[in-house]
Amino acid sequence: MKFTPDKLPIYGETLESLEQWLFQQKQPRFRARQIMDWLYKKRVHTWSEMTNLPMSLRDWLSETFDLSPTQLVIRKSSEDITNKLLLRLRDGSLIETVIIRAPQKGVGQDTSRKTICISTQVGCAYGCRFCASGLAGWKRDLSPGEIVSQLIQICHLEDPITSRDKNEIASFDNIVVMGMGEPLANYDNLLQALKILNAPWGLNFGARRITVSTSGLVPEMIKLASEPMPFRLALSLHGATNEVREQIMPINRRYPLEELIPAAKLFVEKHGHMLTLEFILIEKINDTIAQADALIEIARDLHAHVNLIPYNTVQGLPWKRPSRRRQNVFLEKLHKNHIPATIRREKGHDINAACGQLRLQIEKNGVALPA
Ligand code: SAH
Ligand code: SF4
Asked: Which part of the chain is CATH 3.20.20.70?
């Protein structure tokens, strides 16, 4: 399904495409930069705030472009100050954007590092057995403007000051493309969005602080390896042998480990960054010593960092989170073998922070959503 809105989301335009639009309107080229400045540096909420533009241009812009393609429906906070936003798109679809706050090492208690987790699709077609986003299947891809506007929404909520220094960047530290959907299945829109986030005329956000997570679409990983922007890659491995991976990730049948690992290696060689291997721990499925041994081999081969994620229970799914003791045994095994590994504990467990869970819960239980 493809959704064509009445108005184009303005946050999907690049400087060049906006210049083209303005050229057709017989407007001078410099207006495009002025508009970008209002959008990304001053971050205004309305067209009427763009006071250095002629009134007729502001009218035309408001008839042609949508300045708020995502609307906040619910904001949920968890005990560990992870915030989850449920956003509604123009066609009524719901997506999730998450703010994850982590205390900064060596700095005072009240400062924290802020990571924003964004969605790239409504639902997901890949049907991983443990994941809420895949349960109802894929509905549609997000447009570049819908992807970028999740970050603008965060800027508006978290940092509402409008008069700011020209080159000041956003108030968050990292972006992870780990929300709902498979980012590499929406490749062109994702790349366009990342370009806008990274551009000096856009959010001016460093590509090194953007991590794209994939369930392992090999052709797109190879394509991504040749992109010049130096963003990071996280690979959702979740099974260290084909047998186990296949059981929980249907994608493994299309791209088994013997194809996936070389593609990941290529990315690392071309980009020179350390790869992250995401590994959800599910009791008696992939938390065994044999899986730890196989994971050690893969991580060593790729010089990767391993991120262990204790499984978050999803309503209607049979899987269980392993006990603390089992989690620790697995982690220690990796450490003993000199694999850099961390365990992501509890972030947002109480607000359903794993991708797609809040949307699933709201849609299933039919909670009335504010218009
Ligand atoms: N489609 C991409 C990115 C979105 S999924 C991918 O699969 O990498 C983002 C992360 O959320 C993945 O690492 C995924 O495995 C994890 N996730 C999904 N369901 C989860 C659950 N129930 N508990 C913990 N993590 C989960
Ligand atoms: Fe899709 Fe990622 Fe969920 Fe798998 S884990 S169903 S690829 S969103």
From this structure: 70-363
Q: Would you say 314 and 320 are in contact if contact means Cβ atoms under 8 Å apart?
A: no
> From the CA of 252, how far away is ligand 2's center (Å)?
12
> What would the pLDDT profile of 14-26 be if each residue is shown by its tens digit?
999 999 999 999 9
CATH 3.30.1050.10 correct for 70-363: no
Residues in contact with ligand 1 (CB, 6 Å cut-off): 130-131, 178, 182, 213-215, 236, 278, 280, 309, 311-312, 314, 354-355
**H helix runs in the chain, sequence order:** 15-24, 30-36, 55-64, 144-158, 187-198, 218-225, 242-248, 251-254, 257-271, 289-302, 324-336, 357-365
- To test ligand 2's pocket by mutation, which of 95, 96, 122, 131 has the most ligand atoms within 8 angstroms of CB? 131
Beta strands 112-117 and 94-103, pairing class: antiparallel
Ligand nearest to the CA of 311: 1
283 is catalytic: no
Nearest to 341 by CA among 281, 278, 290: 278
Is 269 in the active site?
Answer: no
CB 52 within 8 A of CB 28: no
pLDDT surpassing 70 at residue 151: yes
Q: Ligand 1: which atom is nearest the Cα of residue 238?
A: 15
pLDDT confidence bin for 346, thresholds 50/70/90:
low
